[in-house]
Amino acid sequence: MITLSILGIITGFVSGFFGIGGGTILVPLLLLIGFDMKNAIGISVFQMVFSSIYGTFLNYHKNRSILKEGLFIGIGGFLGGLLSGFVVSYFDEIYLKYIFIFVLVFSIYRLIVTSLQISTEEKTRKKTIYLIIIGFFIGIIAMSIGVGGSILLTPILASFLYYNLKDASSLGLFFVIFSSIAGFISLSLSGHMLYYEGFIVGIASLIGVYFGIKIKNIIHLQSYKKLILAMYIVILLLFLYKL
Question: CA of 204: how far to CAs of 17, 47, 65, 207, in Å?
């Protein structure tokens, strides 16, 4: 219980600061302490429900626009997340691990090529249908590998739809509410949910989320991008080492 609580606090901080569900760090850590991939996914998805709701509540007071555009992404993510139980049940564990690695590598690449300078024209290129479609496919992938989806969504919003990186991370965490609830339902129905362990990690994560968002709001944008890249690379190396 103590170990899971510590993991929850760490995951919550990362979730709040980087705007991610936390699964990208929690899944590899759970694998390191002995959980198998599918159980780690179940715990991770349960934790995301806690951290994403609380984190979005804190972000909303800083940027109220996240609810409007985030709703369209969230609807797509919810519909995609409902299919995650099917994917987890019928795909071998090794394929889920390869998908996880691909998501990380793609996200690192998109962040590297993303410019922090956004023109007025580029800011207007945000179409509702794009947000829903993007959310749908990310929801399928993310919930099937135990991550919230914002680790893939944030680079896409910043590099293709021209969102400010911090705004993209806030939208990413809002997206996790929808995808994680759908994933929780789907994984529960398919028998892949660990309720007790997920609850312990989820409650502990709330502490970390609070401090993560506080620090995110005061850090310089350029430094923020470098830290995100560093976090993605560390997680990728950690996962490859365990694999």
Answer: 16, 9, 28, 6
- Look up residue 191 and give its two tokens: 């028998």
> How much of the chain is helix, strand and coil, in % rounded to 5?
80, 0, 20
Sequence-ordered list of residues with C-beta below 8 angstroms from that of 42, at least 6 positions apart, any chain? 146, 187, 192, 193, 194, 198
Q: Is the Cβ–Cβ distance between 165 and 116 less than 8 Å?
A: yes
pLDDT in tens, the chain (243 residues): 889 999 999 999 988 888 877 877 888 889 888 888 888 888 988 998 999 899 888 888 777 766 777 888 888 888 887 887 777 777 776 777 777 788 778 878 877 877 665 544 444 455 778 888 888 888 887 777 766 677 778 888 887 777 888 888 888 888 888 878 888 888 888 887 888 888 999 999 999 999 999 998 888 888 888 888 888 888 788 777 766
Q: Token pair of 200, please?
A: 């312990």
DSSP 160: T
pTM, two decimals, is 0.74
Non-local CB neighbours of 200 within 8 Å, separated by 6+ positions: 1, 4, 5, 8
